[in-house]
Structures are given as C-alpha cells and as structure tokens.
Recover the amino acids of this structure.
C-alpha cells in the first residue's frame, strides 16, 4: 500500500472541492483532491451558470477570475413573463448589484488549470474511497487508483463529493437530521447553438408550466421546460422542444425564439435537501454533499462556493492560530445562509411552476403573487436582494 500525508484530504473535484483546494493553497495549507470521474468528464458536465456577485468576488480573490471577467456576461436584471407580458426586475436599481453568467464547468476548468499550473495533487478516476479515524486528530482516507490501494493520512477531511457522494454516510444516523422535499416535476434542459433570444434571463409561467430562457455566451442558449420527473427524452425530438418553448415564452408583443442545433438534452430532478449538522469529528461537508436546492433560484453553485469560503477561513484559523472556534461554528454559520437560500429557492419554484395539486384558488393566488411582484417595488426588492445573493457574514 502507498501511504502519503497531507493537511486536508478533499473528496470531490466539483466547484466546492476545487475552490477549497485553491483557497487553502493560497494560505500555504496543503491538500490532496480525489475525484471519482475523469478530468474530461468534470470539465464538460453542463450544469448551472449564474454566479452571485459575491461568488464573483470569491473567485476573483482566489486568483481564478481572469477568464470569468473576460468571457462572463454581467447581467443587471431578469425578466418575469406571465400571461403574455414581460416584467423586468432591475437588480441595478434595486440593489446596486449584478450577477455573472458563466457556466459551472468553466469555473471548474479555471480551478483545475490553476491547480495543475501550481503542480498540486489532483487525482482523477479514483475508486472505493473509505474514511476512518474521523473522531481522532489523525483521520485516514483509503482509496484505489490505477489498480493499487493508497492511504492518505490527514488532519481534516472535506466531503465535497456532491449529493451522490459517500462522505455524508459517515455522519452517524443518530447524530444528524435530514430535511427533504421532492418536487412533483423536473426540468428538461437543452444547450443550443443559437444566439439567446433575450439579453437577460427570462423566467416564464404559462398554462403548460414553467420555462426558462438562459444562456452561456452570445452564441449559446440554455433553455428549460417544466416536465414530469420521469419524462422520457425519446418523446421530445428537437422540433417539439422548440415548439413548446415558443408556446411557453410567447408574449402579446410577438416574442420569437431564435433556434439552432441542440447540442445537449437532459432531465434534471428537483429537490430541496439539507443535512444538519454538516460536520462530524474531523469530517466537514460542503456543497451538494450537504444540501441541494431546486435550480429555480440558480443557487446550487453559489452555496457550494460560500460553504468553502467559510471552511477555508476556519481551517486557516486552526493551522495558523491554533484556534478551533471557527471550525466549531462552521456548520451553524453555513446553515444560516443555506436556510435563507432554501427558502428563496422553494419560493421561486412555487411561484413559477404548475403543481398537479393546484386548484382554482392556488392558480388565482399564484397569478396575484406574480402581479404583485410586477407592480410592487417592495416585492421586487425582496426578489432582487435574494437573487443577487445575501451578503457573506
Ligand atoms: N469519491 C470521489 N469523488 C466523488 C465521489 C467519491 N466517492 N462521489 C462523487 N464524487 C465527485 C463527483 O464525481 C463530482 O465531480 O464529487 C464531485 C462533486 O461535485 P458537484 O456534484 O459539482 O458538487 P459541488 O462541488 O458541491 O458543487 C455543487 O454542483 O450539482 C451542482 O447545482 C449544483 O451547482 C451546484 C454544484
Ligand atoms: C442556467 O443557465 O443553467 C440556469 C440559469 C438560471 C437558473 C437555473 C439555471 O435559475
């Protein structure tokens, strides 16, 4: 068996794991990042694409913001569309802040490039991760790579291995509480080589359900449709996807979608999930390993980045000053933000989707809420301040 030592073993090379490695490196703390899949896989996986203003600041301060600043699209508002009319929510006027459109896999590419450039350990296609000694001061990570078993001795383990990872299972069932809501619908998402038909994101509610027009660049559109959780993509040839998007996004003033070749099509489940606490012994969970939000508020990646921002500061405090106060408060501090964001993501989801259980009262109430948002600066302020992101504490 090959044995190595590091200060922080990071499981998972998504935005959470990679940013944590980068933040620690800048503070002189060493880490090893272990990823189950390949570099090509994590660099091409199309996921979220909206960065809150402080996520932009975190990436910039971590020294990985140059390409994002060049290629990202700064957005100062979004549009809400219902009953054929458009209503702009002006983030600039309401909050003085903006968001950045920049794909999650671009963030991942930038973080991997920085890690490779600094020649820091990042292992892909590793198997069978097992953790031990989490309640001691010397945890151990065992894994397989290239047919051999390896052991990594460390001071801390960061569980950044996403919702389907293994780290969460090391929290003792009797010591944690899980919170979950599964929604009775999913999103059918496409990535298309077509110039976006709107300069800003459009969130639409139609009789048929939710639709979202988003983008990745001036030539790439990203669009979504509310669909059944078990929707069969075979029933959605490209023409049907475009037709349905056009129906749900139509306006009385004649909005027309720009179409183009569909490069990718997938169905994303919708779930709200939180585990409390996010820590056990020397294991700290961050990102999707600890919580999931439905994508309506575009918060998943932002929460992951906010968690590791807090975790990195706590680890620096431990290694540099010998103080564990911030580590002790890690879970509580993150959960405060997470529940704020859970509420917002649930609210945006409820506002903009058709539920099977809706009765006439629910429909009228939903329309009244959209009309209130369209007409009330106070209601818009609440949406805007949550969308651009609550401040980091
Ligand atoms: N061992 C090593 N790596 C693992 C294991 C394992 N047992 N299980 C999962 N992984 C890897 C996955 O392959 C993935 O690359 O952990 C990584 C987790 O990354 P993400 O799922 O991107 O999670 P996170 O970094 O928390 O980022 C959250 O991802 O799902 C989106 O909407 C979500 O935008 C949010 C973001
Ligand atoms: C995306 O571009 O993928 C996206 C944008 C906004 C959302 C969700 C996803 O709310």
């Amino acid at each position: 068996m090959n044995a190595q030592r590091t200060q922080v073993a990071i499981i998972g090379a998504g935005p959470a794991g990679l940013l944590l490695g980068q933040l620690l490196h800048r503070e002189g703390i060493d880490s090893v990042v272990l990823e189950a899949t390949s570099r090509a896989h994590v660099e091409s996986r199309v996921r979220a694409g909206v960065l809150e203003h402080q996520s932009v600041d975190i990436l910039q301060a971590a020294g990985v913001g140059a390409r994002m600043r060049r290629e990202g699209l700064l957005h100062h508002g979004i549009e809400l569309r219902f009953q054929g009319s458009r209503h702009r929510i002006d983030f600039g006027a309401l909050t003085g802040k903006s968001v950045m459109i920049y794909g999650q896999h671009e963030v991942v590419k930038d973080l991997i490039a920085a890690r490779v450039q600094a020649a820091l350990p990042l292992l892909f296609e590793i198997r069978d991760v097992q953790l031990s000694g989490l309640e001691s001061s010397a945890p151990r990570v065992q894994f397989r790579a290239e047919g051999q078993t390896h052991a990594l001795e460390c001071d801390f383990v960061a569980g950044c291995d996403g919702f389907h990872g293994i780290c969460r299972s090391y929290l003792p069932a009797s010591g944690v509480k899980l919170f979950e809501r599964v929604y009775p619908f999913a999103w059918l998402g496409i990535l298309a080589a077509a110039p976006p038909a709107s300069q800003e994101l459009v969130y639409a509610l139609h009789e048929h359900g939710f639709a979202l027009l988003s983008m990745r660049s001036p030539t790439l559109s990203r669009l979504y449709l509310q669909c059944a959780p078990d929707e069969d993509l075979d029933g959605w040839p490209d023409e049907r996807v475009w037709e349905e998007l056009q129906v749900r996004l139509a306006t009385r003033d004649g909005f027309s979608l720009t179409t183009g070749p569909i490069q990718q099509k997938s169905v994303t489940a919708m779930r709200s999930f939180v585990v409390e606490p996010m820590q056990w012994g020397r294991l700290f969970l961050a990102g999707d390993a600890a919580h999931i939000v439905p994508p309506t508020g575009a918060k998943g990646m932002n929460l992951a980045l906010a968690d590791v921002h807090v975790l990195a500061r706590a680890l620096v405090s431990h290694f540099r000053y010998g103080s564990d106060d911030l580590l002790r408060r890690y879970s509580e501090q993150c959960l405060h933000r997470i529940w704020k964001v859970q509420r917002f993501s649930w609210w945006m989801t409820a506002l903009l989707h058709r539920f099977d259980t809706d009765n006439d009262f629910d429909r009228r109430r939903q329309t009244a809420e959209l009309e209130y948002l369209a007409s009330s600066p106070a209601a818009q302020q609440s949406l805007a301040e949550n969308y651009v992101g609550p401040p980091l504490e």
Observations:
- The first strand starts at residue 2 and ends at 5.
- The mean pLDDT is 97.
- The pocket of adenosine-5-diphosphoribose (ligand 1) is lined by residues 11-17, 34-37, 42, 47-48, 104, 129, 160-162, 165-166, 287-288, 300-301, 304 (CB under 6 Å).
- The CA atoms of residues 155 and 252 lie 61 Å apart.
